Amino acid sequence: MSSHGDPIPMTARRGTALKGIADVPGDKSISHRSLILGALSVGETRVTGLLEGQDVLDTASAMRAFGAEVTRSDDGEWSIHGVGVGGFAEPEDVIDCGNSGTGVRLIMGAMATSPITATFTGDASLRSRPMARVTDPLALFGTQAFGRAKGQLPMTLIGAADPLPVTYTTPVPSAQVKSAVLLAGLNAPGQTVVIEAEATRDHSERMLAGFGAEITTEITPEGRVITLTGQPDLRPQTIVVPRDPSSAAFPVCAALISEGSDILVPNIGLNPTRAGLFETLRDMGADLTYENPREEGGEPVADLRARFSPEMKGIEVPPERAASMIDEYPILSVVAANAEGATVMRGVKELRVKESDRIAAMADGLRACGVEVDDGPDWWIVHGRGPGGVTGGATVATHLDHRIAMSFLCAGFASQQGITVDDAGPIATSFPIFEPLMRDLGAQLDRANR
Ligand code: S3P
Fold this sequence. Notes:
The protein is an alpha/beta fold. 29% of the residues lie in helices and 26% in strands.
């Protein structure tokens, strides 16, 4: 089932080469944070290039429910009149974060140190995901959480009236957990410290500094130590959201595996905490170049040029790179299936608690398409069939997971018999223009069943 409405089966088939320019939407992580930090500032934050996917729209609705004024002008610019740190009002109704783990976990952090109560829910995928990873550290501030037995949504949080600052070492590599603690720390007096053994995406740190918070990051033998001084006056910002490398990954990988393809994907954010996939593809022998590299809004940005790469070889992906490409393993496994030899992916337990169990979803679907896959609790190996070697001819289950849906559609473009996904509806959560964008490049994509 799609998160909103009837399932949308979709079939991708091998067609002509992919050619042209792929203008992918704004970065999902930065879009959520723009709305939340805008809501925690006093005055007007203006945002252009915001991702208008359902996940982000749900966060915009949530910010309205907490008292911020959030509007969109006809030219696509968003305006957020914030209520200031500690200024959230109590929502009158349940906050529905739809499919978005980032949305719900960051918003829980943002309200956790205000004396208000809020109840959160989401779709079937989000209601099955672990929330204790966020509510455990929030309890250290004095926040109470009442959810279902396994710490799942629906869940009510009672914000701490007299929050204490916290020092917290994240037990899993998660930017959502880190960000929830930092956002909660905004309204606690004194210094809140987060220690992460593995570096995860650092958009919260960069953006908190941009909004005027006092925040430092130190690299120590224990990992990255991030220190935030509580109760700042956040200053509203004008934000231009860079385009999402996690969305760029789909047309880029589709071009690498589709004969004769040559595409340009402009203005892609290449923050080192996000760019692990592109490094990995280059290590595999992909013809992928960064053109016109530059800095925009404090983030490294380039235009990506991807050409059909029949010489790609399987590799052992360095596990220390996992956090910087955690959302890209599904599409990497599709490239791996079209490369020669085995691609080994280790240290990726977190993939089991995303919008779906992504190792299981990809392994099942790839096997149904004729690809050999081995998997264990925190690892998997895809045995490549070489360029154009994936048989396809299957209908695969996407489990309410946008990235599983897009990965199998990209696999379909290079497959012998085409691939159908049972529901392309969730793609709207992160990449609402995926279908027209891929068609414009020349991809064969049909809504009808095979
Ligand atoms: C995100 C963090 C990652 C990622 C998600 C976006 C963020 O999740 O998978 O798509 O914006 O902070 P984890 O923090 O659970 O690794």
